[in-house]
Amino acid sequence: MGLQKALAEGIDDLQLTASSDQQKKLLTLLEQLIKWNKSYNLTAIKDPMEGLTLHLLDSLAVVPFIQQQSILDVGTGAGFPGLPLAIMLPQVRFTLLDSNSKKIRFIHQQIHLLGLDNVEAIHSRVEQPREERFEAIISRAFASIQDMLQLTEHLLQQDGRWLLMKGQYSEQEISNLSGKANQIACHTLQIPGLPANRCLIELERA
């Protein structure tokens, strides 16, 4: 199966709607990732079909749960989930933060190439103070939940949400948050092409 057909079917399986322009941008992003990866080692994934599943569809699975208008993607790496989400949600403002300059350079290039005016890329460590506060902070396997909250608390609006994409749900990790954060929801994510479900954990300040 070609990438174009696999993407269209994956979007359909996720019960999402994407215009032909959005699908084209997603495929261009994937092509650029595979191309840049040969020189810059942006991701361990070398196979385009694997990249489609583990980077694009994995990112797109959280689209239905994005309610906020300003979102910080912490430890974004080569721009996931931030770039696919920005393509699908042009009305939402995304800030993509990572401490790896090569990866941020790649993101800057994609913002320009894909004409994404709702994305800002920042080369910084998450601990560094910033004036802006975000309605939501999203991350994909960035750190333990406890570390994540501690490192990003200063970046979240008072009534903001943490949106944590995890491979598996850990009751132990959640119980360790007692007094720091409350779980609002845990959404099961069924990624087309992946046998095991993943989850999106929504937290708010305690």
Can you walk through the features of this model?
The protein has 206 residues and is α/β, with parallel strands linked by helices. The chain has seven helices and seven strands, in the order αααβαβαββαβαββ. The chain has one domain: Vaccinia Virus protein VP39 (Rossmann fold, 3-Layer(aba) Sandwich). The chain has helices at 3-13, 20-40, 48-60, 82-88, 101-114, 145-152, 171-175, and strands at 70-74, 93-98, 119-123, 134-140, 156-166, 181-189, 198-205. The chain starts with a helix and ends with a strand.
Describe what is shown at a glance.
The protein is an alpha/beta fold. The chain is built from 7 helices and 7 strands.
Query: What's the helix-strand series?
Result: HHHEHEHEEHEHEE
Q: What is the CATH topology classification name?
A: Rossmann fold
Number of helices: 7
Sheet having the most strands: 7 strands, mixed
Strand order of the largest sheet: 3-2-1-4-5-7-6
Helix content bin: 25-40%
Distance between the termini: 47 Å
Averaged pLDDT: 95
| Assigned CATH superfamily | Vaccinia Virus protein VP39
CATH class: Alpha Beta
Task: Note the beta-strand portion.
Answer: 15-25%
Question: Can you count the beta strands?
Answer: 7
The radius of gyration over CA amounts to: 16 Å
Q: What is the count of distinct domains?
A: 1
Reported CATH architecture: 3-Layer(aba) Sandwich
